[in-house]
Automatic annotation (TrEMBL), chain A:
InterPro entries reported for this sequence: NADP_transhyd_a_C (IPR024605)
Membrane topology according to the record: Multi-pass membrane protein
Naturally occurring in which organism (per UniProt): Sphingomonas hengshuiensis
UniProt-annotated location(s): Cell inner membrane
UniProt KW keywords: Cell inner membrane, Cell membrane, Membrane, NAD, NADP, Translocase, Transmembrane, Transmembrane helix
PANTHER family to which the protein is assigned, alphabetical: NAD(P) TRANSHYDROGENASE, PROTON-TRANSLOCATING NAD(P)(+) TRANSHYDROGENASE
Protein name: proton-translocating NAD(P)(+) transhydrogenase
Signal peptide (UniProt feature, chain positions): none
GO cellular component, one term: plasma membrane
Keyword Transport assigned: no
E.C. no: 7.1.1.1
Residues in NAD(P) transhydrogenase alpha subunit C-terminal domain copies: 7-90
Class of the enzyme per the UniProt entry, highest EC level: translocase
Length: 92, 500
């Protein structure tokens, strides 16, 4: 993709983020941080590419380590968010 | 020329779907009722992104005579199953560590956990950036130059070098900053601001140096500016967070949340990956908005929080705790009696409740009061606790229904018609000096009007200490205030006993 298309997606996503996040109820701000943490680990995509590529062993090992770190975040982040959200109950 | 492998349109589409799932995940958080569905969508989005990447980047064994510089499409493809197994093992290790941590962690330790998770995102971004620098061909961000003399070499596209440089820098700042935030929140390091002389000059100079080095790297592709960016960014992360005190952590944690997003976005630019860019933008704006909400709730500018040192120096306003002023002391029995006679009680929790782990005892007290026909509500100040929404999670953990819990703007007008305001572990957020005393460091900060209630019950460890802002609280000495001096949890348990 060319730089300008990527930039367009980025700018529009910032606006989407702005409106979506303002609509999050303050009571759920901690789960919001936990889940944003989990989804920002989508950086695992880069780590997977590095880990799968042959040719440069250093890059491959860094990639594998990146996969471990990002996986901790993905599994831990979603699980802890789920645990927190399960606690929010209505009256009665 | 290294030709980027022809991109299957379905691949781009899959990443887009993942991005949309992430948007819907955040959208679900607009209400507790839809939040779990949102979280599931987030998981689905992540699953799509990971699977798509694995399927389109199966590790390939290098055939005989293969070089890094040869176009991949011209070679016979053999899948390297050993490599594939390593990748799956890496995911499995991460999953085990992540799931165990998520299951075991105490809710009161949530701020530390989030800080720790941020540091991992930051470090992962740095690793990906370095890997992309070492093996740019794999990321499709370079072209091969075959000179007349000597070995062919990879030239990374200048735009990619800028993106990589910035991504690595933001990732490194996120990492080291989050490590400090973690240590402070975890109590492994004093929450007091640590002030280095000339820190503003050092920080600005370091930031300027990082930007110049990124430019230098983009210009020359030399190794030294790249590594210098990594090292300096790790250093500036430490330097930026050490002068910031404990109670300013809600802003710091939000800010680091934002940085982890921008780091992911920068890497998304490098890879031209829509899922990463959408996520980065979402997380980046989320953290930025939370930082803004926290700063507004303290009536302080973002710059002043980041500059640090709040409450470290002897600021004039309010003066030291005037212990010689008269105040009233109450017992658990007095408190129990007063609250049982009340029509409405508003409970104001703060960080002290989290430290004392008093939320379960508090809910029990609330239940007892409800049995007596008392209306019980909870009032949450946006900066109560150590991260945004900290109090809400703890109350939810103790089974307090979320419709009993109110935000500052929604409940502040009710104190005047309330019989008892029960302050537990909060201090600065109830200080009326914020409304009246222009010389007070917290002047202008929105506060909960607890003093307007008929009676204020104020749990505090001792009369000596002052809140984070280092100012005395007028509420302690008012005629309608009764101080309950004890550990928060013990006091609440005694009140519950006295109600029987």
């Amino acid at each position: 993709m060319d730089f300008l298309s990527i930039l367009s997606i980025f700018v529009l996503a910032c606006f989407v983020g702005y409106y979506v996040v303002w609509s999050v109820t303050p009571a759920l701000h901690t789960p919001l941080m936990a889940v944003t943490n989990a989804i920002s680990s989508v950086i695992i995509v880069g780590a997977l590419i590095a880990a799968a590529a042959a040719g440069v062993p250093g890059a491959k090992w860094l990639g594998l380590l990146g996969v471990v770190l990002a996986s901790i975040n993905i599994f831990g982040g979603f699980a802890v968010t789920e645990r927190m959200l399960a606690m929010y109950k209505k009256k009665g | 020329m290294h030709e980027a492998a022809p991109v299957n349109p379905w691949v781009a589409f899959a990443y887009l779907v993942a991005g949309v799932c992430f948007i819907l995940a955040l959208r679900g958080l607009s209400s507790p009722a839809t939040s779990r569905r949102g979280n599931r969508l987030g998981m689905i989005g992540m699953g799509i992104a990971v699977l798509t990447t694995i399927l389109t980047h199966l590790p390939q064994a290098a055939p005989e005579g293969w070089t890094v510089y040869a176009p991949a499409s011209s070679l016979p493809i053999a899948i390297d199953w050993a490599s594939a197994a390593e990748i799956l093992a890496a995911i499995a290790i991460g999953a085990i560590i992540g799931l165990t941590t998520a299951r075991r962690i105490a809710m009161t330790a949530m701020p530390q956990l989030v800080a720790a998770f941020h540091s991992l995102v930051g470090l992962a971004a740095v690793l990906v950036g370095i890997a992309a620098y070492l093996n740019p061909g794999a990321f499709g961000i370079s072209s091969v130059v075959v000179p007349m003399i000597g070995e062919p070499f990879n030239v990374i596209n200048p735009v990619s070098k800028v993106e990589m440089g910035l991504g690595v820098a933001i990732g490194a700042i996120t990492f080291s900053g989050s490590v400090i935030a973690f240590l402070k929140l975890n109590g492994s390091m004093s929450g007091k601001p640590i002030l280095l002389p000339g820190r503003h000059v050092i920080n600005l100079a370091t930031l300027a140096a990082i930007l110049l080095l990124v430019a230098q790297f983009a210009h020359t592709q030399d190794a030294w500016p790249f590594w210098a960016v990594v090292v300096l960014s790790f250093a500036i992360g430490f330097l930026l967070i050490i002068p910031i005190g404990g109670a300013d952590m809600p802003v710091v944690v939000s800010m680091l949340n934002s940085y982890s997003g921008w780091a992911a976005a920068a890497m998304g630019f490098t890879l031209g990956n829509t899922a990463m860019i959408i996520t980065g933008a979402l997380v980046g704006s989320s953290g930025a908005i939370l930082s803004y909400i926290m700063c507004r709730a303290m009536n302080r500018s973002f710059i002043s929080v980041i500059a640090g040192g709040f409450g470290a120096t002897d600021s004039g306003g309010g003066g030291a705790a005037a212990i010689d002023r008269p105040w009233k002391r109450g017992s658990a029995e007095d408190a129990a009696f007063l609250m049982q006679q009340a029509e409405q009680v508003i409970i104001v929790p703060g960080y002290g409740m989290a430290v004392a782990q008093a939320q379960h005892a508090l809910r029990e007290m609330g239940d007892k009061l409800k049995e007596h026909g008392v209306r019980v509500k909870y009032a949450i100040h946006p900066v109560a606790g150590r991260m945004p929404g900290h109090m809400n999670v703890l109350l939810a953990e103790a089974n307090v229904p979320y419709d009993d819990v109110f935000e500052l703007e929604d409940i502040n007008s009710e104190f005047a018609q309330t019989d008892v305001a029960f302050v537990i572990g909060a201090n600065d957020v109830t200080n009326p000096a914020a409304k009246t005393d222009k010389s007070s460091p917290i002047y202008g900060m929105p506060v909960l009007d607890v003093e307007k209630a008929k009676t204020v019950l104020f749990i505090k460890r001792s009369m000596g200490g002052v809140g984070y802002a280092g100012v005395d609280n007028e509420v302690f000495y008012r005629d309608n205030t009764m101080m309950l001096l004890a550990d928060a949890k013990k006091m609440v348990e005694e009140i519950v006993k006295a109600m029987d």
